[in-house]
Specification:
Blueprint (H helix, E strand, L loop, with lengths): L26 E3 H4 L4 E7 L11 E2 L3 E13 L5 E18 L6 E16 L18 E4 L3 E3 H12 L28 H4 L3 H14 L1
Parallel strand pairs: 6-7
Antiparallel strand pairs: 1-8, 2-4, 3-5, 4-5, 5-6
């Protein structure tokens, strides 16, 4: 479930047709969308968006697209103001190999067409999380949402859940932790299955 944080102090998103400028945060507000659609073409340096410890951004995250307000009638609650965000992004990230933990780089690029409703709109109904196999609906709080939050969720969805540095990767020794791609060990030879150890003990007693 995408959790969008309300921004107390924020910088408005660029309006279509205005010159480019550098922003540290990009807030897409309902108030601005009531006037017109908002276009964006932004770059976020590595570290500007928190992707967690498992994914490390290596190049600038470039994103472009637009946001618009969609008003819909929602039962007795009147008109609901949904935010639709359509766009794409590209970047390069680094993750750890699932077998040997060496760094693995992957290019990510993705297009998205997302709809965000005010949180609480679907109270009493299971909220729909953003995902590949589900309707792309999320929820926002307060007066709008941050583009960084949208992109964070999309990068995490696009990143590989399990990456390997190469198909023939031998991984780490489960006993000594050595990288078996770089050196060998005798751990597996020295580890004895306890069931075989019991049989060996019986054999030794019979022979004696």
């Amino acid at each position: 479930m995408l959790k969008l944080r309300p921004a107390k102090t924020c910088l408005e998103a660029r309006i279509l047709g205005k010159p480019s400028r550098v922003v540290s945060t990009m807030f897409i507000s309902v108030q601005s969308l009531q006037q017109q659609k908002i276009g964006f073409a932004e770059e976020f340096r590595p570290g500007a968006i928190d992707l967690g410890a498992e994914i490390r951004q290596q190049t600038a995250l470039k994103s472009s697209g637009r946001a618009e307000l969609i008003e819909e009638h929602h039962g007795r609650k009147g008109i609901i103001q949904d935010i639709r965000v359509v766009g794409d992004f590209s970047t390069e990230v680094e993750v750890s190999c699932a077998r040997c933990l060496d760094p693995v780089r992957r290019d990510l690029d993705r297009t998205f067409d997302l709809l965000y409703r005010p949180r609480g709109t679907d109270a009493g109904v299971k909220e729909i999380a953003i995902g590949e196999a589900e309707t792309d609906i999320g929820y926002y709080e307060g007066e709008g949402l941050l583009l960084e939050d949208v992109l964070r969720e999309q990068v995490l969805l696009a990143a590989p859940m399990k990456a390997v540095c190469r198909e023939e990767c031998k991984g780490l020794c489960p006993h000594c932790g050595r990288n078996l791609n770089l050196e060998s060990c005798v751990c597996l030879e020295s580890v004895v299955d306890p069931r075989w150890a019991a049989l060996k003990e019986i054999k030794e007693k019979l022979e004696s």
